[in-house]
Design goal:
Layout lengths: L1 H24 L9 E10 L2 E12 L7 E3 L6 E4 L3 E5 L5 E4 L5 E2 L5 E2 L5 E7 L5 E8 L14 E7 L22 E8 L5 E12 L2 E8 L2 E2 L4 E5 L5 E3 L4 E5 L10 E6 L11 E7 L7 E6 L4 E6 L4 E7 L1 E3 L7 E2 L4 E3 L8 E3 L8 E4 L1 E3 L5 H34 L2
Parallel strand pairs: 11-19
Antiparallel strand pairs: 1-2, 3-29, 4-28, 5-6, 5-9, 5-24, 6-26, 7-8, 9-10, 9-23, 11-20, 12-13, 13-14, 14-15, 14-16, 16-17, 18-19, 21-22, 22-23, 24-27, 25-26
């Protein structure tokens, strides 16, 4: 019986050494989770019969070190959750290794080609939640969009004097109180400069002269304020029309100038909003991942386009996952089904863009475990040797 006990100890210690060696070998592997051998005593007829490896558990409760790489598609999970990736056979796998890149078809993939899963967007660029898909980076140029509105909000200085010189001359600052330029775009993405000259004509009354690319756009717009400084008229948008076809070949521009929120207080002239819905065409310059997992393309025209949102998964018993390779797992009966959601919702952890999670192996602890396992191996080997000597003595005295 002592032979069997010693041999079981040697066998189990050898298996433990394999687990410890695997941990040490992956101390620098992104997303690796340290394993721990769990041993159990063997009994036969109520008598001790040795020891066996009962289970190898992995430590999902401890995060690895966060390594900042600066790479635009790298992501690190802090807390609970796994990235969902789809392998070449279409099977879902789960990983903590957040080092992603684009493949030749612009899909977001792991180093071995598994595709990151998330919520996609429809043709209008709106997120489609609830349906997992392969996240893909659209590298196409963003087409130009003609301006149809311009939000202009400012404070007209209440105690400004009526200019002594009239009529308006854009080259003579004595003929107007203030001026401000806004950029608008035609259907081809050409930029046009809309300059507004504000001329006070009486108390609480101003004329706003519009010039497009230096040319007057007809009669001025009269702006009236109430005695409390709030805007009275115009009550709605001011319709502006400009035909750039002679110079650019673009369509006629119809832009609504919205002055809602404009005031007349004693403070200095100041602009608080100057935004148009139009823009020039743009080429892809990079990608941006937000903390909620939203992946956006960034273009040369300053615009962003939402491409999708990373989805995380969690399990009632992560320790029950089946290991597919060193950094990916598949669900099992013991783990339960995946519960999915976006980062920071429910019990799911948060995302740190531009970083990845390293291994959570404690190298010092593993080296101590290694020495302990070696001592156990030596002890069991000694027990086998001692049993052999006792057997030889027994048979030599018979």
């Amino acid at each position: 019986m002592s032979y069997n006990i010693g041999l079981s100890g040697l066998r189990t210690t050898n298996q433990s050494l394999d687990v410890i060696s695997q941990n040490i070998a992956n101390v620098s592997t992104a997303g690796f989770k340290a394993s721990r051998p769990e041993l159990a005593a063997l009994y036969s007829g109520g008598q001790p019969g040795g020891v066996e490896m009962n289970n190898v558990s992995q430590n999902f409760g401890k995060d690895g070190n966060k390594n900042f790489s600066g790479r635009e598609l790298d992501m690190a999970i802090s807390g609970q959750g796994f990235f969902i990736v789809k392998d070449q056979n279409g099977q879902d796998r789960y990983t903590r290794a957040g080092m992603f890149s684009k493949d030749a078809d612009n899909f977001v993939t792991t180093a071995n080609g598994m595709k990151l899963q998330g919520y996609g967007v429809n043709a209008n660029g709106d997120l489609v939640p609830g349906v997992l898909t392969d996240l893909k980076v659209q590298a196409a140029t963003v087409p130009a969009q003609a301006s149809t509105s311009l939000d202009f909000v400012a404070n007209f200085k209440a105690d400004a004097p009526v200019p002594a010189v009239a009529p308006l001359d854009p080259d003579d600052t004595n003929t107007y109180n203030f001026s401000y330029s806004s950029e608008v775009y035609d259907s081809l993405g050409n930029e046009h400069t809309l300059t507004k000259y504000m001329v006070k004509t009486a108390a609480n009354t101003w004329d706003v002269h519009m010039y497009m690319n230096g040319a007057a756009m007809g009669a001025p717009t009269t702006v009236n304020f109430n005695s409390d400084g709030s805007l009275n008229t115009p009550a709605g948008p001011v319709a502006l029309t400009y035909d750039p076809s002679a110079t650019t070949g673009a369509d006629v521009m119809n832009v609504d100038l919205n002055l809602t929120g404009t005031t007349q207080y004693a403070g200095d002239f100041a602009v608080t909003a100057n935004a148009t819905d139009g823009f020039a065409s743009g080429d892809l310059t990079g990608l941006r991942v937000d903390e909620d997992g939203s992946v956006s393309a960034v273009y040369t025209n300053g615009r962003d386009r939402l491409l999708g949102q990373v989805v995380l998964a969690n399990f009632a018993n992560p320790g029950g996952l089946s290991q597919a390779d060193s950094t990916t797992w598949t669900k099992s009966f013991a783990s339960g089904d995946a519960v999915t959601g976006t980062a920071g919702t429910g019990a799911l952890g948060t995302l740190t863009p531009g970083a990845y999670e390293g291994s959570n192996v404690d190298l010092t602890g593993e080296l101590v475990n290694l020495m302990t396992a070696q001592r156990n191996y030596q002890a069991n080997a000694k027990s086998v040797s001692t049993a052999d000597q006792l057997t030889q003595v027994l048979f030599s005295n018979m």
